[in-house]
Known about the structure:
Blueprint: H1 2-21, H2 25-38, E1 44-51, E2 66-73, E3 78-84, E4 95-100
Antiparallel strand pairs: 1-2, 2-3, 3-4
Amino acid sequence: MRRALVALLVLAGAFLLVGCGVEDDTQRFAREMVESTVAGDPSYDAGDVHCTRNPRPWFVERQASVVVCAVRRADGGCDWFRVELGSPVSPVTTRIRLQSKDAGCMVSV
């Protein structure tokens, strides 16, 4: 019985690691958009951008309409950018704006 419980815990941990480490398409799109937005600004580290992912209530992924990205500032700390996603038919309507200055560097991903 104990061996089965340990195997189940190991399997659950592996599942959690694989599921949490992969960037989904929406998250990658938002990250790339924010990186290109701050690329010319020396006050940001465009290579250190982290964004929230699509919501997954009850393990069923839903398409996000807003993604929040934390961007590392050159002087320390992070600013949060809000990415309002356009429709899949017309992603050109995507808007990016500064949401919060020095808001912290951890976003729930």
